[in-house]
Model the fold of this input.
Amino acid sequence: MSHILKVENLTVKLDGRTVLEDINLSINRREIVAIVGPNGGGKTTLIKTILGLVKPFTGNVEILGTVPKEAVKTGKIGYLPQKTEIPRNFPFSALDVVLLGLIGKKIPKKEKIKLAKQYISYVGMEGCENKPYGRLSGGQQQRISIARVLVGEPEIIFLDEPSTGIDVVAQESFYDFLEKIREEKEITVVMVSHDIGVVSRFVDKVAGLNRKLHYYGHPKEFFQRHILEKLYGTDVELIVHSPECVACEHFHLDFRKEK
Ligand SMILES: Nc1ncnc2c1ncn2[C@@H]1O[C@H](COP(=O)(O)OP(=O)(O)OP(=O)(O)O)[C@@H](O)[C@H]1O
Ligand SMILES: [Mg+2]
Done:
């Protein structure tokens, strides 16, 4: 399988501090990959570096067969940044927000609106075109934001914590939706998540990041004490029910601070 993204020996320093150290990873087309790790572990910085928004100290990023700055210009990369608070009086409709995803595309306005409406119904938000974006619920805003990312028909999308603030049931349907995107649009998905138990059931690979990449591979082997301690520290008591556990339908994971 051919890779769509390759990161080699990547080290990033911010304000003189090493935030990412010697990262190596490769992502194939149509894979769904989750980046997990503690707050401040460098997840957002890794995505920003892949997108050419942060400069590597050493190492290389190759995406869509070229360097980030060139790849971004092709319009084949979608990016949903980590959530920022949207004011309730945010003066744009859901349709306006989705249209932002078509800025710079040389197609007539009428076509853009048609395309944006198609994607609004694709994310299950038909009929909400004219609603103020700021008045939608968190989950509805997330769907509209995803429509904005998808409307430009990218080949690879980066979603920085897209499921934050979404309840578990909605999260599960969100991951089903990502799988549908992958199948129907042949898209590669890279997402940051803190819900490692839930996410691990849906993704092809997990990247466990805490300055260094402590784990990169199938989710099944991720749930090992020495890996999780490297990521989240040794002061956590870890309860893992393995996927083979008959009492448990799912991976089940819990962290408790030791007394
Ligand atoms: N612009 C910046 N200048 C200096 N340091 C920064 C900058 N952005 C991030 N950092 C630092 O880099 C480290 C990694 O931050 P980053 O935002 O990549 O973490 P993260 O894994 O995305 O965390 P979270 O889960 O909280 O979103 C943190 O220690 C942060 O303080
Ligand atoms: Mg982040």
